[in-house]
Structure formats: structure tokens, C-alpha cells
Design a protein that fits this description.
Elements: H1 3-10, H2 20-32, H3 39-46, H4 61-70, H5 82-103, E1 139-141, E2 151-153, H6 154-165, E3 169-172, H7 179-190, H8 200-223, H9 238-251, E4 256-261, H10 266-272, H11 278-285, E5 304-310, E6 313-319, H12 329-344, E7 352-359, H13 360-365, H14 367-375, E8 387-392, H15 402-405, E9 422-426, H16 430-447, E10 451-456, H17 474-481, H18 486-496, H19 502-518, H20 556-566, H21 577-590, H22 598-611, E11 616-620, E12 635-636, E13 643-644, E14 657-661, H23 667-677, E15 684-688, H24 699-706, H25 709-713, E16 720-724, H26 739-744, E17 752-754, H27 759-771, E18 778-782, H28 796-801, E19 807-808, E20 821-825, H29 829-840, E21 845-850, E22 852-854, H30 858-865, E23 873-881, H31 887-899, E24 908-914, H32 925-939
Parallel strand pairs: 4-6, 4-7, 7-8, 8-10, 9-10, 11-14, 11-15, 15-16, 16-18, 17-18, 20-21, 20-23, 23-24
Antiparallel strand pairs: 1-2, 3-9, 5-6, 12-13, 17-22, 19-21
Helix pairs in contact: 2-5, 5-6, 8-10, 8-18, 8-19, 9-16, 12-23, 20-22, 22-27, 23-24, 30-31
């Protein structure tokens, strides 16, 4: 052995033959849990020699014991000695303790209906560890068990473990790698045996909250029998849980709480926690219109915000709007939370707390849950940890068999992917539910990681109040029918223990009913005059009518200054050769030696917006450089892999420019950015698809939020979707951004769909999105080949002086009277048409670009056509198949424009493009080239 180690051992008098069993017991404890032995021993065991490449803690005891014997300090093993047997039993006790921590949850009483029949857990039996009842009065070292003393009888140890891990709370945290987190959780649960002794005041408050939860459901059931409300009956403990989390969060200095939640219990939360007026809820049940315009939405989808007072001060609460795609609201809330944190400079997430409320079936079944967990610790999407509450009804719609609902033991197992602790709790034990809510919030605030509370309960009236649940769950509902409510059970308990009287319990119910009858607020902590600094002021963005034309010019001198700063890179950043060429080309563009290309115009737009005080956030799977290597907004040094982002270094104290390459997902990420954009109206927020067809994976977000959020909920959003689109022969999957789908969703001026064809157009389009106070989603059919097309260029003056053109008239000096045929198009096909016209010398044909496809610029198009008095035919040309692209969406509008033209109905409207097809594009380059030539030629036939 090393000299220092021999010196250490020579100074330890307890290393002798008489203490062999003690040393071996310590080492066995170390093998199970390194933190269960004193620090000096842990440090020594960590330095023991390795065997077969394994650390000392991963090898058996025998070869390690030989190291002690080499010192001459350990005598021969006393065969048959009593001490050896004691030591082995000590190790077995430590293993038993560990078994309860690992598997005690499988024997916990967490099902209020008693229908859960867990499999036997042999690890929790004494015999499994070669212990017996005869050992119960023997004292053993308690190791890391938080029992209040170093030694205890085995009977005391087992009782402590049973009370902690096998009552109303089932804890899962041993899958966590971090030792500090595990020790912290062990201490929280073991020190109080999983059930703290709450004061009479706290218990009375719990009953008051349960009475409110039950009271609202009873009131609505009697007033609107059979009406869908997705009531909370069976899960009433949720209300005191969430109420406690919010009040406790205030003590931590939290100033905002954003909540995401699906249907069940949502109305109860709105009234009993957020303070929505019962009178307003009744109006919704009566079908009264609330929004002045738009479709509105059912009452259990609606969001709400309010301010409540806590012991730590005022907190702003925001419940996100939620569609029927149950879990899709989760990443939306996370995006909103990240925006609130960024606005506050809250990098750790201490001031803004996300709480997500899930259903058990959706939590286990919907993939966006995994995406949301995957975001939780990434740079672009972390929010400092989320508290997840699963209202576990033990049945998904009509699916109750676990082997039909999922392939895991618990619906919450997905959370283990990020090592989140999971607390299963019996919904009929509201004190246990309250305690896990406290531990969950404390864990989140301390470790800034996700945590899950699984509230195991039931639903008293089936999937909704119009269902007959006995048809599919007869045994479950036979038990539910005779099962007392949580409030009844808890009131009986408090009466039996002398905490309250029967009259006290009844008075709580009567008082709550009186508040409902009067229509007054039922949340005592509700702040009637909220502090406006706690939330975003949307007033500057409200009430603006649609206007496509907006001044987006920018001072030419300042533009050149910003361009120069963007091209200044520190010497220590060694650029890759092609990237260096990109920046050298940009320096020439500034001086006019080269025309401005797409990538430079786009990044210049960002620079001008930052200069005018607007933050920018861009994410996507390859957005730092751009999928087609046009942006290079992030420079990677070739020597040390450090990065330089020029747009972050324009001025001291500038607004933030955030750009992150995302992980490989679309649905959760687009939803996150939607949530971010709805919370940061002053910023440009963009999501870039690697290819346009990748939006397929986020169609739920587009359908339920992007296109309809304003109509359903009055929710404004300026999110930008950058969708690479264009037929380049890359096959069915990488040609189309499914323009037709977006146009099909367009109505009531709900969003903008554009297909810009020049760098200047992109520059002004991005600027228009932010400097104009109107907030509508923007969908950009972004080109691919045009990023470097020799003709798709602009000048610095076009950027400084121009504005976004809804329609670009025919370019050239041809005589309008000679034009008999006009081709209308959008996007990249224009350059193919222009090249063909020049090649064929067809000066009798004009080409007009429709740059904005929705809202369709009818007046601008009519003005572009006005000079062609001899017009005979108009062709809409597109690259997409006839049943895709823009044709079906705009052809009736085009006919209306032509009817208003001075040539009247004499101008025929024809189509040129690919034939209708099931797939978006051909998979063979030769076929693509042939089709492209044919459609371009057909466009000139008229």
C-alpha cells in the first residue's frame, strides 16, 4: 500500500482483530450506501485498490479484507464467533432499510377505493434478509435512517419504515443519482414518519378547503344536472394541495405562478383558488356570450388570471387556456413561464413557478409529456423545475385495466427519465396530500428540478356528468357508489378527535353555499386591486385593425453601423474557412461591392429590432447556422469550441438576442414558443423548422393555438414560424411546408401567410411583425435555393428605404398594352418563370408575385393588374400539386379580383402546376425536373 495509507491505518487503534466484524459491517454499509458511513471511513473505502477495473465499492469484501491483513493489524477471522453473526445481521438490517426506500411505495395504501391489488414485495419481508421476529428486540445501528438515534431495536426500525413508506404516501426517489437530493428527501419523510402532526388550525383550514371543493360541485350538480363540467368529485384533496403550494410559494418570494390544467377540476380551481366570480361562472353555464367577437370556447377550456395575497406578499396567478388535446398545454405553460422569468432576469427560476396538472391516462399516454420533461434541464427551455400534479382517477375515459392504459407500473413512470421524485398519495388522506405538496414545492425551490405528486383518487360521475360509468366499470362504481366523500371522511375524523364539532363542520358547508348563492368571490386571499407590475401590459397591442402596409424603413447610416458591428469578430474566435468567407462576403455587401443575400438581410433585420429595443428569441433544430447554412448567427471557434454571437454584442445593455439549436422535436417546442410569444408582446419570437414538413409533428399546436387561439380565447400572439418550402427535387418529405393546410385554417384575419421572394422582403417582413403593434402569428414559406440565388438579392438602400410589398408588380419596361397574358405566382417559382420568359423572349407576358397569401391582398393585386387593358388570360402558377399549395384556397378570390378588372369576365383564369397527387412531391430528380419544366412552360400558354 501507499506510505500515506499505511500511516493513516497505523494511527487507527480500532483496526485490530477484535474489530474485524465492525470494519466489515461498515464496509457492507458502504457498499449499499456510501453516505451511511462516517466521512473518514468513506474517504478510506473510496481509495481502496481496484479489482478488474472496478472501483472498490463494486467488488466483494473478501479481496478487500486481505488489504487489512497485509498490515498485520487484523488477526485470523474468528470462525463461528458471535461477533461475525452480529455484523452480518447488522448489514441485513441496513439492506432492509434500503429495501423500504426502494420498494415501500409498492405496499403503500394509496388507493382510496381499495381496488389496487399490488403484487407481493418480498424485499420488504424480514425473511428475505435472513432476519426473523426473534431479532425484533435486538438493537442495531440505524445507519442513515432518520429515526432520532444511532441505535434502535429492529421493531422500532420496522415500525418507522412502515409508517414512513407504506401508509398513505408511496415515495419513489431512489432512482435519483444525486446523493444530496436523496438524503434530503429521506430526511423529510423519515423524520415525521410521512405524516406530520398538524395543528388544529391547519386541520380546520384543510376541512374548509375540502368543503369549498365539494360545495361547488354539489351546487353546480343541483343547478345544472347532467351538464358537462368535468367535476372534481373524488379528487377534492387537490384544492387544499394547490392552495397550500401557492401560499407556500409566496414565502419563497415567488411572484408569479403559471398553471396548466386539463378539464377535470378546472372549474373548481378557477372559483376556489384563482378567485373567479361564481356569478361569472353561472353566466357561462347559462350560455351568455363573454367575448365581443370570435367563437369563444367551452367553460372548462378557459384561462384566467388573478392576484392573491400570501404570507410572503402578492402573487400573480395565471391559468393557461387549454384545448381538448389534454397535455398540449404543458409546454405552452413552460414557454410562458420562461418568458416571465426572462422578463424579470430570473435565471434560476426562483420568482416564477410553473405548476402542471395532469390526468393519469394522458400523462402516461401522450408523447408531448416526454418532450416537456426532456426540455426541463436544457438551456433553451429550462424553467427552474416544474411541480407536476397528477389527478389520478385510475381510469382513462373507459380504460381501467393497467395493461390497456400503459406498459409501466405507474402512470407517472415517465417522470423517472429526468430523475424526478414521485410521491403517490391517497386522495382520501388530505393531510398526507398537504404534506407531499409542501415537500414537492420545497424540493423544487431547493434543487430547481421537476417533481411529481400523484394524487390517487377516483371520479364519482364517470368521464363526464352525462356518462353512465357502470356500463364499463361496474365493480369500480359499485365501490364508489357506497364510498363516502373525502370531506365526509375527514370531517368525521376531526369530530372524532375533538378538533371540531358537527355544528362547526356543517357551518363551513352552509357558509360556502351562501357565498355561491350571492355570487360573491369565495377566495379570501383574492387581491381586489392587483399590482400591475406583476404581469405584462397588453393594452398597447389591443384594438388594432388589420393593415398590411406599414412603414418599416430604417436610418441608412445606423443600418451600416449595425452591419459593421455584426461582422466584427474577436481575434480569439477562429472561424471555420467557409464561415469566414460568409463574413468576408458580408463586409463587401455593406460597402456595395456585393449584393445583399438572404442570410445577411435577415440578420440585419434582427439587429435593427434589437437597436429599437425589442428582444429576439429564435429556436429550431439547426437555427444557429440555419439548416441551409445561410444564417451563421452563432460562430463556433475552431480552437476551443467557444461561441460568439455577434447579435449579442451590438451595444452595452441591449435587449437580449437568444438563439438555441433545439433537440429533435417539434410539437413540444412549437408549443413552448407559442407560450413564450403570448407572454412577451414586445419581442420577436420565432421557431424555425429544419424542413417545412417538420411542422407535421406540431399540427396540434397549429390547429389548437396558432390559428385559433385569438378566436377561442382572445389570446394575441405574434409567433413567427419559419418554414423552409420549395421544390428542389429533394423528395416528398423535404419539399412542402404544407402551405394548403395553413391556408385552410385562415379566416377572420387570424394569421399571416407569406412567401417572400427577395432578401429585402424578408427584412421588412420581420420588422413589420414587431414594429407594427398588431400581434398575429406569421407563417413564412421560407425559400431554400433562393438563399443563394444569383437573382434573389437586394441592396442596402432597399433595406433602409423600402417596406414589405404585399404584391410585387411585373418587373421590366414592357408595354402594358402588349400584355395579353399575366402569370400570378408566389415564392421561388417566380425565378424559374422569369428565366423562361427571358429565354423565350415572351415580352407579351407579365409576371406578378403575390408575396402575402393571407390576408389576401385583393386591392394590391387589382392595382398591379390595372394597367393591362388588353388582358385575355390570367394563370395561377405553383410548384405544388393542384390539390395542394395555394390554388384551391385562393382561386375564388382571384376570380373576384378579375371580375373587378376593367376587362371584366373576358380574362380567363387558368391553372399551371403539378397534377393532383397523394404525395407532396416526386421522389426522383429526373421526374422532378421534367415536371418543373412542364409547369413553367404551361404557365405561358394562357
Amino acid at each position: 500500500m501507499e506510505e500515506g495509507k499505511l500511516k493513516y491505518l497505523s494511527g487507527t487503534s480500532y483496526l485490530n482483530g477484535e474489530n474485524t466484524h465492525y470494519i466489515e459491517a461498515l464496509y457492507e454499509r458502504y457498499l449499499v450506501d456510501p453516505d451511511s458511513v462516517p466521512g473518514e471511513w468513506r474517504g478510506y473505502f473510496d481509495t481502496l485498490p481496484r479489482y478488474d477495473g472496478s472501483p472498490s465499492r463494486d467488488v466483494p469484501l473478501a479481496p478487500v479484507r486481505g488489504q487489512f491483513e497485509q498490515l498485520g493489524r487484523l488477526g485470523p477471522r474468528p470462525i463461528g464467533a458471535q461477533g461475525e453473526d452480529d455484523a452480518k445481521r447488522q448489514v441485513r438490517v441496513l439492506q432492509l432499510i434500503n429495501a423500504y426506500r426502494f420498494r415501500g411505495h409498492q405496499r403503500a395504501d394509496i388507493d382510496p377505493l381499495g381496488l389496487r391489488k399490488p403484487e407481493p414485495v418480498p424485499d420488504l419481508d424480514l425473511s428475505f434478509h435472513q432476519l426473523s421476529k426473534a431479532d425484533m428486540d435486538t438493537e442495531f445501528q440505524t445507519g442513515s435512517l432518520f429515526i432520532g438515534k444511532d441505535k434502535a431495536k429492529l421493531a422500532e426500525i420496522v415500525e418507522a419504515l412502515e409508517l414512513t413508506y407504506c401508509r398513505s404516501i408511496g415515495c419513489e426517489f431512489m432512482h435519483i443519482v444525486n446523493t444530496e437530493e436523496k438524503r434530503w428527501l429521506q430526511q423529510r419523510f423519515e423524520s415525521v414518519r410521512g405524516k406530520p402532526d398538524y395543528s388544529a388550525e391547519v386541520r380546520q383550514h384543510i376541512l374548509e378547503r375540502l368543503s369549498a371543493a365539494e360545495g361547488l360541485e354539489s351546487y353546480l350538480a343541483s343547478k345544472y344536472p347532467g351538464t358537462k363540467r368535468f367535476g372534481l368529485e373524488g379528487g377534492e384533496s387537490f384544492i387544499p394541495m394547490l392552495d397550500e403550494m401557492i401560499q407556500r410559494a409566496g414565502g419563497y418570494g415567488v411572484e408569479e405562478v403559471a398553471i396548466g390544467m386539463a378539464h377535470r377540476g378546472r372549474l373548481n380551481l378557477l372559483v376556489n383558488v384563482l378567485g373567479k366570480s361564481p356569478a361569472e361562472l353561472i353566466d357561462e353555464f347559462d350560455g351568455k356570450q363573454v367575448l365581443a367577437r370570435g367563437s369563444g370556447d367551452v367553460k372548462y377550456h378557459k384561462g384566467f388570471s388573478s392576484n392573491v395575497m400570501t404570507p410572503g406578499g402578492e402573487i400573480h396567478l395565471a391559468l393557461a387556456f387549454n384545448p381538448s388535446h389534454l397535455e398540449i398545454a404543458s409546454p405552452v405553460v413552460e414557454g410562458s413561464v420562461r418568458a416571465r422569468q426572462d422578463r424579470r432576469g430570473d435565471a434560476s427560476g426562483d420568482q416564477v413557478l410553473p405548476i402542471l396538472v395532469h390526468g393519469d391516462a394522458a400523462f402516461a399516454g401522450q408523447g408531448v409529456v416526454m418532450e416537456t420533461f426532456q426540455m426541463s434541464q436544457t438551456r433553451a427551455y429550462r424553467t427552474g423545475g416544474t411541480v407536476h400534479i397528477v389527478i389520478n382517477n385510475q381510469v382513462g375515459f373507459t380504460t381501467s385495466r393497467p395493461d390497456d392504459a400503459r406498459s409501466s407500473e405507474y402512470c407517472t413512470d415517465i417522470a423517472k427519465m429526468v430523475q424526478a421524485p414521485i410521491f403517490h398519495v391517497n386522495g382520501d388522506d388530505p393531510e398526507a396530500a398537504l404534506y407531499v405538496s409542501q415537500v414537492a414545492l420545497d424540493y423544487r425551490q431547493r434543487f430547481h428540478k421537476d417533481v411529481v405528486v400523484d394524487l390517487v383518487c377516483y371520479r364519482r360521475h364517470g368521464h363526464n356528468e352525462a356518462d353512465e360509468p357502470f356500463g364499463t366499470q361496474p365493480l369500480m362504481y359499485a365501490e364508489i357508489k357506497q364510498h363516502k366523500t373525502t370531506r365526509e371522511l375527514y370531517a368525521e375524523h376531526l369530530i372524532a378527535t375533538g378538533v371540531i364539532s358537527e355544528a362547526d363542520a356543517q357551518r363551513l358547508t352552509d357558509d360556502y353555499r351562501g357565498h355561491l348563492d350571492s355570487g360573491s368571490h369565495v377566495v379570501n386571499a383574492l387581491v381586489q386591486q392587483p399590482n400591475p407590475s406583476l404581469f405584462v401590459d397588453w393594452k398597447p397591442y389591443l384594438g388594432h385593425e388589420w393593415s398590411g402596409d406599414y412603414d418599416t424603413s430604417f436610418d441608412a447610416k445606423r443600418l451600416a453601423e449595425l452591419a459593421t458591428k455584426m461582422c466584427t469578430v474577436p481575434e480569439q474566435i477562429v472561424m471555420q474557412r467557409q464561415v469566414a468567407k460568409v463574413y468576408e462576403d458580408r463586409r463587401q455587401m455593406i460597402t456595395g461591392q456585393a449584393p445583399i443575400n438572404w442570410g445577411f438581410a435577415e440578420t440585419l433585420a434582427y439587429a435593427t429590432l434589437i437597436d429599437q429595443g425589442h428582444p429576439i428569441r429564435i429556436t429550431g433544430q439547426d437555427c444557429g447556422r440555419g439548416t441551409f447554412s445561410h444564417r451563421h448567427a452563432v460562430i463556433h471557434s475552431q480552437t476551443d469550441a467557444s461561441t460568439w454571437v455577434p447579435l449579442q454584442h451590438l451595444e452595452q445593455g441591449q435587449p437580449t438576442f437568444t438563439i438555441h439549436d433545439s433537440f429533435l422535436a417539434e410539437e413540444g417546442i412549437m408549443a413552448f414558443e407559442y407560450g413564450y410569444a403570448t407572454t412577451t408582446p414586445n419581442a420577436l419570437v420565432a421557431w424555425e423548422a429544419q424542413f417545412g414538413d417538420f411542422a407535421n409533428g406540431a399540427q396540434v399546436v397549429i390547429d389548437q393555438f396558432v390559428s385559433s387561439g385569438e378566436s377561442k380565447w382572445g389570446r394575441l400572439c405574434g409567433l413567427v414560424l419559419l418554414m423552409p418550402h420549395g421544390y428542389e427535387g429533394q423528395g416528398p418529405e423535404h419539399s412542402s411546408a404544407r402551405l394548403e393546410r395553413f391556408l385552410q385554417l385562415c379566416a377572420e384575419e387570424n394569421m399571416q401567410v407569406v412567401a417572400p421572394t427577395t432578401p429585402a422582403q424578408m427584412f421588412h417582413l420581420l420588422r413589420r411583425q414587431v414594429v407594427r403593434p398588431l400581434r398575429k402569428p406569421l407563417v413564412v414559406m421560407q425559400p431554400k435555393s433562393l438563399l443563394r440565388h444569383k437573382d434573389a438579392t437586394s441592396t442596402m438602400s432597399e433595406l433602409a428605404e423600402g417596406r414589405f410589398q404585399l404584391v410585387i408588380p411585373d418587373q421590366g419596361e414592357r408595354s402594358p398594352s402588349a400584355v395579353k397574358h399575366v402569370i400570378l405566382c408566389a415564392g421561388k417559382v417566380y425565378y424559374d418563370l422569369a428565366a423562361y420568359r427571358q429565354e423565350q423572349k415572351r415580352d407579351d407576358v407579365a409576371i406578378i408575385r403575390v408575396e402575402q397569401l393571407y390576408p389576401f391582398p385583393e386591392q394590391s393585386l387589382a392595382a398591379a393588374l390595372a394597367s393591362f387593358e388588353q388582358l385575355e388570360s390570367v394563370c395561377w402558377c405553383q410548384e405544388e400539386p393542384r390539390n395542394q399549395g395555394a390554388w384551391y384556397a385562393i382561386k375564388s378570390t382571384l376570380r373576384q379580383v378579375l371580375e373587378g378588372h376593367r376587362s371584366g369576365l373576358g380574362a380567363r383564369l387558368v391553372y399551371a402546376g403539378r397534377d393532383a397527387a397523394a404525395a407532396p412531391a416526386a421522389g426522383y430528380m429526373a421526374v422532378h425536373v421534367e415536371q418543373q419544366k412542364a409547369l413553367v412552360a404551361a404557365a405561358f400558354e394562357g
